[in-house]
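Hi, here's the filled form for the chain we discussed.

Project: internal
Contact: R.S.
Residues: 152
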Amino acid sequence: MSRLRRQIHAYVTPDLRKTLRVYAARRNCSESAIVDEAIKRYLDNETDSSLVLRRLDQVNRAMGGMQRSLEVITETVAAFIEIYYAHTPSIAPADKAAARQEAAARFASFMQHVSTKLRAGPSFAVELVKDGALVEDSELGVGIAEPDGAAP
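And the returned structure, exactly as it came back:
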């Protein structure tokens, strides 16, 4: 801080003047030092509102990424269901009880697999979505195969 100072004359309300005196006495520093620091902060635009606005902007960007991830998941589930119904035959009424038991066992296995994958680290969605942009099928080297084995 420069030792050369210039005096200014500012007018404040009596209540603000009293608050300034009490604050300076509590902090054991001069009123000039407090006013100097307050003006610097005000002019640096580092107010609480600017900090809050920056943090809100960060949250907004993060939410945009989450929205894109949700869109990817939704489209993936929809595509899976469409393909599943297209390739899964109906079950005869006599076989439904056995099918339900088999489905319960397979679902338990699936849930165990998902649990293991979640503990393992980076998810499929993180691999599929890079910086908010979907990876092209050509980059993955895969595509959905048509029933006759040809790519779409």
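Let me know if anything looks off before we file it.
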